Amino acid sequence: MTVLVLNSGSSSIKFQLVDPVAGTAVASGLVEQIGESGSGIADHAEGMQRAYQMLDDSGADLAAVQAVGHRVVHGGQRFYQPTLITDETLAEIERLSALAPLHNPANAIGIKVARKDFPAVPHVAVFDTGFFHSLPDAAATYAIDRTVAAEHGIRRYGFHGTSHEYVSGRVAEVLGRPLSELNTIVLHLGNGASASAVRGGVAVETSMGLTPLEGLVMGTRSGDIDPGVLMHLRRAAGMEVEQIDELLNRRSGLKGLCGVNDFRELRALIEDGAEGSVAAQLAYDVYIHRLRKYVGAYLAVLGRVDAIAFTAGVGENAASVREDALAGLDRLGIAVDPQRNRADSRDARVISAATSPITVLVVPTNEELAIARAAWRFV
Ligand code: ADP
To answer: Where along the chain is ATP bound (predicted)?
Structure first.
């Protein structure tokens, strides 16, 4: 018995077949370049056929699929729990595209195709915004005209919620303490990056807002920026809204600062010392500075912090980021142990010194497992 977990993007489908009881991935893969000329994959329906073929080739049994879990980016104000997909909920997910124009339409297409292919099993939507439904109003509200905000659904929603929820839960397991007693800062550092403050298992603050553009410096996204910059680009540079959108989402962050968005390439640029290493070093410094700022802010938001957890591609793998972001914070109760931090391990582990009042951890995220378990509850 397995759950098929789908993350359908505009030109890609990420899939994983999960055994929700054992908690293991049976098979996984990625179909890319959907709809791109020369790829031979005209649309998502064909992309899914490709995915089934890949699963079949790996020896997986598609007849054993008992549920399909769909990652959906935006749940708006209405959806925050894992939700059984019906014609009506699907229509609502499509209506929420105004809030997530890049993501929800692609998620909806994936759902439609998979419902046709697996008509007899429950399909469950798990929302990236869901975990942050609990944000207090003071954290979720932008200080703008409230009638304008209400009319257009403008508030802070937060994203990567499945990961933040999973990782904060894992922290409690690893530390052997009740989740309800733990205050944790989770730093999800992947291509996209976000921070959250979690009090007793409930999210009270997060760095992403109306869209996944706010907050930390990311691979290609700017994160926090003075909104005045947007008006300036419009007026002084004559840029159109679409161009500004593209600039901030795709040509900013690490990529904008030094030309590469992958941390391994960034490190190589810095170490090679040639042309480009100055820009790469600055990109790294800006990234670390922003991260430290958020850690400091969330220490204040939570008041008492028990744990700080790093997760996702950069957070799990880049020891220097963990070390540099938290360096010199002993007076705030944070002491990373250099040796533990550099240990070569794939497991969830503590990397702070035994004497550190705040425990620092590396916790591999597993959004697919979290989605599979959520979907499994509907079987
Ligand atoms: P996504 O947000 O796309 O799910 P991931 O969480 O997989 O991203 O993170 C991808 C990023 O992780 C890569 O762009 C790269 O910068 C970083 N990364 C992956 N492996 C390593 C590594 N061994 N060392 C440093 N950074 C890494």
So the answer is: 14, 188-192, 262-264, 313-317
Q: Is 45 exposed, middle or buried (CB count within 10 Å of its CB: 0-12, 13-18, 19+)?
A: middle
> Under CATH, domain 3-127 is a member of which superfamily?
ATPase, nucleotide binding domain (3.30.420.40)
- Does the Cβ of 312 fall within 6 Å of ligand 1? yes
The CATH number corresponding to 176-362 among 3.30.420.40, 3.40.50.300, 3.30.565.10, 3.90.190.20 equals 3.30.420.40
44-57 and 104-117 helices, crossing angle to 10°: 60
Ligand 1 midpoint to CA 263 (Å): 7
On whether the CB atoms of residues 189 and 223 are closer than 8 A, the answer is: no
Known catalytic membership, residue 117:
no
Tens-digit pLDDT profile for residues 173-191: 999 999 999 999 999 999 9
Question: Annotated binding site: which residue ranges?
Answer: 7, 14, 71, 188-192, 262-264, 313-317, 367
Q: Is 216 in the pocket of ligand 1 (CB under 6 A)?
A: no
Residue range 56-99, pLDDT digits in tens: 999 999 999 999 999 999 999 999 999 999 999 999 999 999 88
Point out the annotated binding site for substrate: 71
- Cα(356)–Cα(332) distance, rounded to whole angstroms? 10
Q: What is the pLDDT of residues 104-117, one digit of tens each?
A: 999 999 999 999 99
- Residue 265 CB less than 6 A away from ligand 1: no
pTM of structure:
0.96
* Catalytic position from the list 128, 137, 245, 344: 128
Helix orientation angle between 104-117 and 87-95, rounded to the nearest 10 degrees: 160
